[in-house]
């Protein structure tokens, strides 16, 4: 197959806590996995390297670097840290490049420290139900905490009903969903949910905001 162009885009990461413990925290003595993913064209030219605090990492018994089967999760590399130690805290960088070169690399920084914690999601007091009038602009808000802060996914609680823009799901980086020129049909319950992308690969946290649109 001949590609007319080459590209690297959509660099994302996620942190997977030790699967052998019930809580989602990162703790000394446990395992933690960092994964990063990019979209590459052509995919077979994609290469990855890992750095810690700017210095190259090599796969070892305690720092295991792998690349996921492209049929399962294309463009994905993993760094497994076995038996996490205090000295393992730092900034890990995943660098994606194409063998042929010619286009900039993508670097994704992931900080692992004692303050790296899974997300929490809440609706601010007084923000649900949210009452507005037709034609207004409204902002539905979910407060997201955690470090790193994940991408927030918004959808209708009735999964068969599309979002105001016609899609089934919308992304938000600050937890705010802005709707312009609201109509009566937009009345209903909206769900905000944490994504694994740029955050923790754990059971999603969810909350709901009720929107009531009144006639002018």
UniProtKB/TrEMBL annotation:
Residues 17-113, 119-210 form the Ig-like domain. GO terms for biological process: homophilic cell adhesion via plasma membrane adhesion molecules; synapse organization. It comes from the Eukaryota. It holds the Pfam family Ig_3. InterPro entries: Cell_Adh-Cytoskel_Orgn (IPR050958), Ig-like_dom (IPR007110), Ig-like_dom_sf (IPR036179), Ig-like_fold (IPR013783), Ig_I-set (IPR013098), Ig_sub (IPR003599), Ig_sub2 (IPR003598). One of its GO terms (molecular function) is axon guidance receptor activity. Transmembrane segments: none annotated. Coiled coil: none annotated. One of its GO terms (cellular component) is neuronal cell body. PROSITE patterns: IG_LIKE (PS50835). PANTHER family: CONTACTIN 5, MAM DOMAIN-CONTAINING GLYCOSYLPHOSPHATIDYLINOSITOL ANCHOR 2. This is Ig-like domain-containing protein. It comes from Eleginops maclovinus (Patagonian blennie).
